[in-house]
Amino acid sequence: MERFGVEPEVLARFSLMRRGHTIYLLSPCQAETEPAACLRVVSAGLPFARKVGRYLKPTSSALRLLDAWITRNRLRLEPVEALELLREGQIRLEHGLAEGYVLLESSGLALGCGLALPGRIKSQIPCREISQD
């Protein structure tokens, strides 16, 4: 979480477990996670990041959980921009951020993960997490 400025001590209180391309964030009780390593796990803990190509993509849930500790690569959107992004999946926006994953926020709320590209932002928030109301 170096890209987001999250101090290592914040994550040190949790355990991480990798299954396939997904890394899960678990409660800090190591004794409970070691025996579980031999089980067929469908889902364990909070999906924290996924391997996408050669990168780790943080999940929107992980970014919302760590919102208070994220000090870099945050993008504040006006409510109208946030609505358009969630509806269209991407928007044109001169943002001044380096290319890569960012925490999207609007009206003081952490929305989830976005991808900053030159002159535009792509939503990485799963459709199932976006209310159509």
Give structural attributes.
five-stranded mixed beta sheet; 4 helices; globular; alpha+beta; about 130 residues; four-stranded antiparallel beta sheet; single chain; Nuclear Transport Factor 2, Chain: A; about 20% helix
In short:
The chain is an alpha+beta fold. The chain contains 4 helices and 9 strands. The protein has a single domain, classed as Roll (Nuclear Transport Factor 2, Chain: A).
Structure in words:
It is a single chain. It is built from four helices and nine strands. The protein is of the alpha+beta class. The protein has a single domain (2-129), classed as Roll (Nuclear Transport Factor 2, Chain: A). The strands form two sheets. Strands 5-7-8-9-6 form a five-stranded mixed β-sheet. The protein has a four-stranded antiparallel β-sheet with strand order 1-2-3-4. The longest helix has 10 residues, at 79-88. The protein is globular and about 45 Å long.
